[in-house]
Design brief:
The complex is a heterodimer of chains A (164) and B (248).
Chain A: H1 4-26, H2 29-48, H3 57-75, H4 96-108, H5 111-122, H6 127-134, H7 138-158
Chain B: H1 4-12, H2 21-40, H3 46-50, H4 97-104, E1 109-117, E2 120-127, E3 130-138, H5 142-151, H6 158-164, E4 170-174, E5 177-185, E6 196-204, E7 208-215, H7 234-241
Antiparallel strand pairs in B: 1-2, 2-3, 3-7, 4-5, 5-6, 6-7
């Protein structure tokens, strides 16, 4: 994975998934793009340093993405952007209104709750893996996960944010 | 109310077709290259620098080199630079970097090497068989600046960058900007062979980053230490970093 071409192929293959996660985490296209760029830069550096091969490059990239997001939210605690806007483009069968509501509901969650959701349900990580990635206890992951899912289901069920 | 399966499908269906992913990859790659370059560009010259290393005889080695940790700061006293963000300076000709570095060091240095690319220029020399290198680069690339402008965002200041750096050491206000000096031992898993470097990073107020490193070996990696201490102290690399000699 050390040469330029291999990295580019890896990045091209993973970038849709990384961008999707970033969009769910950030709720804003520009911030999501920046997050993916920063993540790819970190993966690039890691791959090109002589630290041995990355066993699971995709997992490494996703972990880097979420950790970068969390640390950036900590740095910009007063600059949180909660934009309930998911670009309405094609390529999906999901109801656009439902997606807008999802974005609004996600924006209401804390950054850590969003990270838990993305890792647990989008990246399909185990509770233990999510706990390790986010440096929280497994119990905290379970609690946050249940709470976040509950809130999303409530919002999506009532559509209250869609019309607020 | 959707069940959990529908919710998961919804998460997975978040569209990604609104973004130019290939451009995203390109920008991420470029940012990664810049980051890697910042750390290792000079080290990439180490193989070349190893060739033809000439041992410096004890008779020509300044006495302070024998005990760098206790040495007075004897780099040539070029005036510390002052920087004005409204009138950014230009670095010296890239081909003059190594000669300039050598001129600031006491004693005789060998194996000068220059290196430059988009937005940066670097040089290295060997002093008493131990490596000293300098890197001058744009703190924010043109891409960074364009993106910030597009987003209406403000780029971090020299002070913010200095304070945020996690490399250790303390941040000090200097005439040209903000300076951080620190020491670290190389810890890469397969090269834990006792190489130690003293490093100084200056973030200037007019948009440049100057990094000076001094090692206890002829390279950052893939070589054996020549001594226990780096060839220059943290104070000395700091003095080199704040020198005005890197700018026209």
């Amino acid at each position: 994975m050390r040469d330029e071409r291999e990295f580019t192929e890896f990045a091209a293959a993973r970038s849709p998934h990384l961008y999707r996660s970033a969009l769910l985490l950030c709720g804003d296209r520009h911030l999501a793009e920046d997050l993916v760029q920063e993540t790819l830069a970190k993966v690039y550096v890691r791959m090109h340093r002589r630290l041995g091969r990355i066993d699971n490059p995709a997992g490494y990239a996703h972990t880097a993405l979420v950790r970068t997001f969390i640390s950036s939210r900590r740095r910009r605690s007063t600059g949180e952007v909660t934009v309930a806007h998911v670009p309405d483009s094609g390529g999906t069968t999901a109801d656009p209104d439902l997606r807008l509501t999802l974005a609004a509901a996600l924006a209401e969650l804390t950054p850590l709750d969003r990270a838990v959701l993305v890792l647990r349900y989008l990246d399909d990580r185990s509770v233990a893996e999510v706990a390790a990635t986010l440096s929280v206890s497994e119990g905290a992951v379970r609690n946050r996960s249940m709470r976040a899912i509950g809130r999303l289901r409530n919002h999506l069920g009532t559509g209250e944010l869609l019309h607020s | 109310m959707p069940d959990q399966t529908e919710l998961l499908e919804l998460l997975h269906s978040t569209p990604v077709s609104d973004v130019d992913l290939s451009a995203l990859v390109e920008r991420g790659t470029r940012r990664g290259r810049a980051s890697l370059r910042r750390r290792r560009v000079v080290a990439s010259l180490s193989t070349a620098a190893m060739v033809g290393v000439v041992g410096v005889g004890a008779t020509v080695v300044p006495s302070w080199l024998a005990s760098p940790a206790a040495a007075p700061i004897t780099v040539v006293p070029a005036a510390p630079a002052a920087a004005n963000p409204d009138t950014p300076r230009e670095p010296i000709d890239p081909s003059q970097m190594a000669a300039t570095l050598a001129s600031l060091l006491p004693g005789e240095s060998t194996d000068p090497a220059n290196w430059h690319g988009q937005g940066f220029q670097a040089a290295s020399v060997l002093l008493d068989g131990r490596r000293v290198d300098v890197l001058v680069e744009q703190t924010w690339s043109d891409v960074d600046q364009a993106k910030a402008k597009e987003l209406g965002d403000e780029l971090d200041s020299a002070e913010a960058l200095c304070r945020r750096a996690s490399s250790g050491g303390a941040c000090t206000r200097v005439a040209a900007g903000w300076l951080r000096t620190h020491q670290y031992a190389e810890t890469e898993q397969d090269h834990q062979n006792g190489i130690v470097g003293n490093h100084a990073t200056l973030w200037t107020s007019d948009g440049w980053t100057v990094i000076v490193s001094a090692y206890n070996a002829s390279g950052e990696k893939h070589t054996d230490p020549v001594s226990g201490d780096p060839v220059l102290t943290q104070g000395q690399v700091g003095d080199l970093a704040v020198s005005d000699a890197w700018f026209r």
